[in-house]
Amino acid sequence: MNEVKVAQDFMRRKLVTLSPHTKVLDGVARLLRDNISGAPVVDDQNQYVGVFSEKACMKALSGSVAAAIELGISAPKVREFMKRDLITLSQDDDVFRSIDHILSKRISGAPVVDANGNFLGIFSEKTAMRVLVAALYDQVPGTNVGSYMNLDRNRIIDENDCLHDVARKFEETPYRRLPILHGEKLAGQVSRRDVLRAQHRIALEVADRVRRNGASESISESAKDREVGEFADTTALTLGPNADILQIAQLFLNSPYRRVPIVSGGTLVGQISRRDLLEAAADLLRPDPARHQASPLYLSPLADSLPPSMR
């Protein structure tokens, strides 16, 4: 049987962290500058407080966005900030090679299209987790992306939708990317980070206008740059350094989290993201040609996590 890795074997120890007293605009700017989707919040003694995630950022910027509307600052349409040059996958692509591909490109997922460019679904880090669980639990050999892609079409948006509508969709759903279609053809995509970057620009414009020209008390209050600690997710799940790779996979499968802080005695000692888990499990995700199937591990608690197509 394969040796099971635990969190301390592959967790990241050098982390970007924020203080509860960091100003929201500075905190969001740090996430955007470092190209990360969230950061642990710790106090002066490195005691874990919570996580400042992209969703928390959007909530924190909502006051500035509301102030922008009152100030007559127009919100951009999707077509103004969507990405058009996309990495895509085919439903016939080998699932393990596709996981390697999204890891090497440092993206959290990719649209799946047919030979004519028609949109079929999304293959993401979370669906890759399902591959991991199925491979370990059922000893499933390699299969194709079409067996695992997410088919939910409620995530599709229009290029004429405005920033506020898209932000609301992200706040209310677990989606990380929303495709834009022309007919059935994939025309582009908007990620949470695209929306957050646009919201941050608006918040900076609001702050500058209020500083230069003044504003009503209600607008000034809405646009006030608050502290990260007010918006950090203090209920986010954490694990200890000895949590094994299977426990971590189960947490990611059964929650919307993209990262889990590793905490020991209240102190933040590391962090593991979905990407870290997939990279650590790379040997398990790539079937050995000599064996033609993944090595078995004992995963009975994870049986309910298998996708319907694999049950």
TrEMBL record:
Q: Domain named CBS: which ranges? A: 11-67, 82-139, 149-206, 232-290
The family database entries (InterPro entries) matched by this protein are listed as:
CBS_dom, CBS_dom_sf, Diverse_CBS-Domain
Q: Does the keyword Methyltransferase apply?
A: no
Alphabetical UniProt keywords: CBS domain
Q: Where is the signal peptide?
A: none
> Coiled-coil ranges per the record?
none
Pfam families xrefs:
CBS (PF00571)
Origin superkingdom: Bacteria
Q: Which SUPFAM superfamilies match?
A: CBS-domain pair
Q: What's the protein called, per UniProt?
A: Inosine 5'-monophosphate dehydrogenase
Provide the species name.
Stieleria neptunia
